[in-house]
């Protein structure tokens, strides 16, 4: 069972073991993190199967850009047209969660074998959200449970390839959860009013988090409220960066709101130590973190600038590299100060996140004339008791909290069976590796 982490911010350095699946000859990070850096999400089970089927094919493709030891990540549901032009077989889509798919790769590459994708069904749970890194389930009106993707055990007649994929995907997604757990445990000790509150990060089934709401209409429709949102998220990033962590997935979907309509930064499944690679591929869409090959404070500021553009203009910006230079869209927010902040962040001209916070705070002071009152959170011990009661109820009724959760010992056995390093995909150091 996970224990409370005693991570020192100064100790957070890139985990060298995570380089096992890097495309070494091109110098790019592993493809899973590359896809996550684009902020691509899936929202239904059909997308899950499509993504896994595609990745099964990509594992065997011979082209240089695809010569990666891929893990499943389910991030293809919102691929833009440039991706589909580069990978034309993405247009083929399975119809049901249990089907087996045969996809053909274009001439010059190997033919994919069949690969069945099956998620583990769960009893009597309300799904609040589905993303690349897992599911979010309802616990109570104040609590949610975030889990990694849990795959059903292959059938007794499964091929060795299916067994290998199950092991590979399970280990990868478990490590996503371990990394996010590490970040949230650090933030439990160093909280921030505009970063999601973790209630219990020590349970094997996942992370119990405070429940928030989506973007309120009054915030979206009022520029003064939007400016306060930008300032609050920039301030949250400033705190995160002081701990040596890059969020690496700043998007509208990852900003929630408390009962006072104050912005809360959430979803740390893509978070990385500062200095990790930020893969940028020629002729493919620019990552949400910008064109720099290394993740830094500027990466999150670049993404925040895109978020600001999105909310001010009503659509996401179209950014690209032309002859090695960043091509920017026309800025028409109606406020020259906002346009200046967006452009400065896009061009990487802020030396520190605190400079962007200062710039936003100046505009906020001019447009907002009300005092901020932070939400009074429920008693923390009461929330933990609610978690315990909910877990006990599910154990009594179903025999377990979630079906298909593997213990650390089972994960080690699974990795050893297929000669895999169970810690290879970790981005953060951990007190207890699976040795």
Largest sheet: 5 strands, antiparallel
Number of helices: 11
The name of the CATH superfamily of one domain reads: Transferase(Phosphotransferase) domain 1
Approximate shape: globular
CATH architecture of one domain: Orthogonal Bundle
Helical percent range?
25-40%
Distance between the termini: 14 Å
The CATH C-level name of one domain is: Mainly Alpha
The succession of helices and strands, N to C, reads HHHEEEEEHEEHHEEEEHEEHHHH
Q: Taking strands numbered 1, 2, ... along the chain, how are they ordered across the largest sheet?
A: 3-4-5-7-6
Poorly predicted spans? 1-110
Strand content: 5-15%
The average pLDDT value, as a whole number, equals 76
Computed Rg: 22 Å
Features:
transferase, 435 residues, Transferase(Phosphotransferase), domain 1, disordered N terminus, 5-stranded antiparallel beta sheet, ATP binding, alpha+beta, single chain
Detailed description of the structure:
With 435 residues, the protein is an alpha+beta fold. Among the domains are: 13-72; 213-366, Transferase(Phosphotransferase), domain 1 (Orthogonal Bundle). It has eleven helices and 13 strands. It has helices at 31-37, 45-58, 81-86, 160-189, 217-221, 223-242, 297-313, 336-346, 353-367, 380-398, 408-417; strands spanning 100-101, 115-116, 127-131, 134-138, 143-148, 198-203, 206-210, 245-246, 255-257, 263-265, 272-273, 320-322, 325-327. The strands form five sheets. A five-stranded antiparallel beta sheet has the order 3-4-5-7-6, with helices on both faces. Helix 6 (223-242) packs antiparallel against helix 7 (297-313). It is globular and about 65 Å long. The two termini are 14 Å apart. Mean pLDDT is 76; it is low at 1-110.
């Amino acid at each position: 069972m996970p224990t409370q982490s005693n991570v020192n911010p100064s100790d957070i350095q890139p985990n060298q073991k995570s380089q096992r699946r890097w495309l070494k000859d091109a110098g790019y990070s592993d493809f899973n993190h590359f896809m996550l850096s684009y902020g691509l999400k899936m929202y239904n089970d059909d997308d899950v199967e499509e993504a896994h089927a595609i990745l099964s094919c990509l594992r065997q493709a011979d082209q240089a850009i695809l010569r990666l030891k891929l893990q499943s990540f389910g991030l293809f549901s919102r691929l833009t047209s440039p991706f589909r032009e580069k990978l034309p077989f993405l247009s083929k889509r399975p119809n049901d969660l249990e089907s087996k798919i045969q996809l053909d790769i274009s001439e010059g590459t190997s033919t994919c074998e069949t690969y069945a994708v099956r998620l583990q069904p769960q009893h009597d749970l309300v799904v609040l959200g589905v993303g690349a890194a897992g599911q979010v389930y309802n616990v109570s009106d104040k609590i949610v449970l975030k889990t990694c993707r849990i795959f059903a055990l292959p059938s007794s007649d499964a091929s060795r390839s299916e067994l290998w994929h199950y092991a590979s995907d399970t280990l990868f997604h478990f490590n996503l959860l371990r990394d996010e757990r590490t970040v949230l445990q650090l933030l439990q000790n160093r909280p921030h009013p505009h970063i999601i509150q973790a209630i219990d990060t020590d349970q094997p089934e996942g992370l119990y988090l405070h429940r928030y709401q989506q973007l309120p209409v009054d915030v979206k429709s009022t520029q003064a409220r939007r400016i306060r949102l930008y300032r609050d998220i920039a301030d949250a990033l400033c705190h995160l960066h002081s701990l040596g962590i890059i969020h690496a997935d700043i998007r509208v979907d990852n900003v929630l709101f408390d009962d006072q309509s104050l912005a809360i930064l959430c979803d740390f499944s893509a978070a990385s130590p500062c200095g990790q690679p930020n893969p940028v591929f020629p002729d493919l869409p620019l990552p949400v973190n910008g064109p720099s090959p290394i993740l830094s404070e500027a990466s999150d500021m670049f993404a925040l600038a895109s978020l600001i553009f999105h909310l001010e203009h009503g659509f996401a910006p179209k950014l690209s590299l032309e002859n090695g230079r960043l091509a920017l869209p026309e800025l028409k927010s109606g406020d020259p100060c906002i346009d200046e902040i967006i452009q400065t962040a896009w061009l990487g001209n802020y030396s520190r996140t605190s400079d962007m916070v200062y710039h936003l705070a100046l505009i906020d002071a001019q447009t907002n004339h009300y005092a901020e009152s932070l939400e009074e959170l429920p008693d923390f011990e009461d929330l933990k008791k609610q978690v315990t009661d909910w877990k006990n109820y599910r154990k009594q009724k179903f025999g377990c909290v979630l079906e298909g959760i593997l213990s650390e010992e089972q994960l080690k056995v699974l990795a050893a069976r297929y000669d895999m390093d169970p810690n290879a995909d970790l981005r953060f150091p951990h007190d207890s590796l699976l040795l």
